[in-house]
Automatic annotation (TrEMBL):
Function in brief: Cell wall formation.
Domain Mur ligase C-terminal per the UniProt entry, residue ranges: 317-447
Lineage: Bacteria, Bacillati, Actinomycetota, Actinomycetes, Micrococcales
The UniProt record lists the keyword Cell division: yes
Mur ligase N-terminal catalytic domain mapped to chain residues: 17-112
UniProt protein name: UDP-N-acetylmuramate--L-alanine ligase
A Pfam short name: Mur_ligase_C
Protein family: Belongs to the MurCDEF family.
UniProt keywords, alphabetically: ATP-binding, Cell cycle, Cell division, Cell shape, Cell wall biogenesis/degradation, Cytoplasm, Ligase, Nucleotide-binding, Peptidoglycan synthesis
Catalysed conversion reaction: UDP-N-acetyl-alpha-D-muramate + L-alanine + ATP = UDP-N-acetyl-alpha-D-muramoyl-L-alanine + ADP + phosphate + H(+)
Organism: Microbacterium arabinogalactanolyticum
EC category name: ligase
Gene Ontology MF terms: ligase activity
Amino acid sequence: MIRPDLTLPIPDTITSAHFIGIGGSGMSGLARMFLDAGIRVSGSDRADSANLRALADAGATVHVGHDAAHLGDADTVVHTGAIWPENPEFVTAKERGLHVIHRSQALHWLIGGRRLVSVAGAHGKTTSTGMLVTALQALGADPNFVNGGVIEQLGISSSSGADELFVIEADESDGTFLLYDTSVALITNVDPDHLDFFGSEDAFYDAFVRFGNEAREAVVISADDPGALRVHAGLDHANVVTFGRAADADLRIVDIDTSGPVSATLVHGDDSVRMQLAVPGAHNAINAAGAVAVLMTLGYGLADAAGAMEGFAGTVRRLELHGEARGVRVYDDYSHHPTEVRAALEAMRGVAGAGRLIAIQQPHTYSRTQHMYREFAEVLEELADHTVMLDVYGAREDPVPGVTGELVSSAFADQAHVHYVPDWQQAADYTAQVARDGDVVVTLGCGNVYQIIPQVLDSLRRTPEV
């Protein structure tokens, strides 16, 4: 992993930018906005993808695989922290003396001093950002935005708008959310993670306190989440707006109904309004409350803001239905932290109804798995009827001896509730053998676990119900 050096200068002018890892959801969206700004764009990724093909259609020069020759005449190279320091394009760009900047610095350059809403938090920030963007559009605004995931009804993760307002998902994982000149900060929750970067929980919390205090206009923060409460205690901002179930929240959410697509009542002072969403899960009602609080901070009324939430259809890889076979529905969710897994499974429990819930879990990174394997096992055993455990998706990390999916599965109190199957085809076949008509299967993880879904659906079609 390359840690971003935010002290490096950002060029005043960029005419030709090369993106290393251009196929990722965040990087592809950023590259698209560079194209919108009239900048020549090239990029490379280790594998072909729909994102690469879409960028090529939009005018970018894209390459599969990494090679120094791909740099062409670029004057600026944009990278993520996920590439290796030995990447030939990264090394050559440094040797040539090109501007080599982290993706957050490229985004900072794009924002260019416009009024900025930054959404941060350990969980829910992609969904909350999508809610804000689609609600603003429903209210007649045309914001610029960069999200960490594709917004379902828009089919994109970023866009250049006509308004002065800019909405972004601000990544806390490497501290880069502190780079932006934020006007309104939304903090969805604060659950210690990424300690390989921050070093300690205190440093993690301190970063969020700084993020909130540096917002020029307002801080909107959860009134329920324990970590957010700790951050709130450290804030000395003049305009802090809270949201949540707590009795003292500035925007309260009550009467949450999760029997279908979630609905709830929002209360602000003497005003109240019923809010109906198109997505499931109590956590999404909480996310929507935070987005409504931001909209009210921006000047919209409670009823208008809540009504604008109704059209949000979700973001890709967040409780996304992929198909159905033999009466079994198969979903995917990006959850990769125990708190996120809990929220996803609780939402899926409402979707499953009388059916059983089968989780296919792919642990993400060796460090997180080693640190949290007991927590993963506890929440999976509590909320899923059965768990199929895959091996760890290492991402940027080298393997750690003894840290595999079996480490999580072995922590289950009742081994009858879990089956460790590192081979994907065997895992798909096993899932098909276990599943019955009316059950729901959900893949969980932010790696490539969603790619097992076609195998699961195929196995379901080929395997008669037992």
